[in-house]
Design goal:
single chain; eight-stranded mixed sheet; four-stranded antiparallel sheet; 18 strands; elongated; disordered C terminus; binds zinc ion
Length: about 400
């Protein structure tokens, strides 16, 4: 029974993906890949998902503008409900993969695998829908705007976690071989705190700096000083990054700039170092006026909590992964990623676990978020089977019906 599970009552969840379902998922993924849409613009994607759900007799509802939510399971059941989430947005990148189903839209590309996530969740819906009996309800959450970092929040505000006791998801990852699934308890994706700093000085002639207050020199000093927060103030055993990704100022070689805008992000793997670095950033920015006679304003925007996998949910995720792919292919991702993932917002409300699906392609390809990113499509079947298994297993837990979410909104 390598691909099925027998529950206490003797019911089975048949997780075999036959060739017809495999081809159906491939077609879904390739269609979405050809027609990518950016965060909060996923109207065609949402319509396509609803159409594909309808092919299997499932009604999908638009939620939060461009999200889609559907439920499978016994209608009006007072029993447990589990959430499965797929993100669905693309990135503002012009694709150069040369794939026969490459993006039809210059400047838009599925370069993070979210097209695959949608195909996996639709595949899981197929597997669950055909089961003669389900131990509870499964809520399918197709979420927009993960790349914007706040699509999950919008979905939660629209009630997608109401009555949901736990939530699960997976992300395609080409660092791992196809067939491998990483399952880890605790923090697996960092806190992300993006910020912008506006510097205001006095513009002037390049030859007469004494008549101006130069924001380029102040900004350059700021960039270098901020690196000392990481090298001198953070415990070197704790992973932490501060990156300035954008520094814009000035218009000409002979004009001293009067205004500059720097944008950056802090990535942290624990609350203590996160607070220390943020406090340090405030301190350094606050000192700029005294050092360079320029005014500085620091603003944080769209902060992301860390993805912290709950112990109990992780054990169920691990059992589902063993069932799906074999015990030898269920591995640890190793150290926490310093990437952000807005799945973290769901975990502030309910227990949850995010895993990674290995998907290294046979031929060389670029990393995620690059214009040559591709993945091994054989991971689609594995993702679909794991999603179906994890939902089934969670619903069968004694007491699952007692668990429902507590949707706090304070740490957004
Ligand atoms: Zn991404
Ligand atoms: Zn992603």
């Amino acid at each position: 029974m390598s691909r099925s599970t027998i529950n206490r009552a003797g019911h089975r969840l048949d997780c075999r993906v036959d060739d017809a379902l495999h081809q159906w998922m491939l077609a879904v993924r390739r269609h979405l890949h050809r027609y990518p849409e950016l965060s909060y613009e996923e109207h065609r994607t949402a319509a396509f998902i609803r159409h594909k759900l309808a092919e299997r007799g499932i009604t999908g509802h638009i939620v939060g503008g461009t999200g889609v939510v559907a439920e499978i399971g016994p209608a009006d059941s007072p029993g447990p409900c589990v959430g499965l989430r797929a993100d669905m947005d693309a990135l503002p990148i012009t694709e150069h993969t040369g794939l026969p189903f490459a993006s039809d839209h210059p400047g838009r590309m599925h370069a993070c695998g979210h097209d695959g996530h949608v195909a996996m969740l639709l595949g899981a819906a197929n597997l669950l829908q055909r089961a003669p009996w389900l131990p509870g309800r499964i809520r399918l959450i197709f979420q927009p705007a993960e790349e914007r970092g706040n699509g999950a929040s919008r979905m939660i505000e629209n009630g997608v976690l109401d009555r949901v006791g736990a939530i699960f998801a997976g992300h395609i990852d080409t660092h791992y071989r196809t067939g491998q699934i990483t399952v880890d308890p605790g923090l697996i994706c960092a806190y992300a705190d993006p910020f912008s700093i506006t510097l205001r000085g006095r513009a002037g002639h390049a030859a007469r700096p004494h008549e101006a207050a130069d924001v380029v020199v102040a900004g350059a000093g700021l960039v270098m000083t901020l690196q000392t927060l990481i090298s001198r103030e953070v415990d070197p055993n704790r992973a932490e990054v501060l990156t300035i990704g954008s520094f814009q100022a000035g218009t000409a070689h002979n004009v001293i700039a009067g205004e500059a805008v720097l944008k950056g992000t802090i990535r942290s793997t624990d609350e203590v170092t996160r607070k220390r670095t943020i406090d340090g950033l405030h301190r350094v920015v606050g000192a700029l006026e005294a050092m360079y006679a320029v005014r500085a304003e620091l603003v944080f925007e769209d902060r992301l909590p860390a993805v912290i996998n709950a112990a109990y949910a992780t054990e169920i995720a691990r059992a589902a992964a063993w069932e799906t792919t074999g015990i030898d292919k269920v591995i640890s991702q190793g150290p926490a990623s310093l990437g952000g993932e807005d799945f973290a917002f769901y975990q502030q409300c309910v227990e949850g676990c995010l895993v990674r699906f290995g998907a290294a392609p046979a031929a060389a390809s670029g990393p995620a978020h690059s214009d040559t990113f591709t993945f091994d499509e054989r991971c689609l079947e594995i993702g679909a089977r794991w999603l179906a298994q994890v939902a089934w297993r969670w619903l069968l837990q004694p007491g699952a019906a007692m668990l429902t979410g507590d949707c706090r909104t304070d740490d957004r």
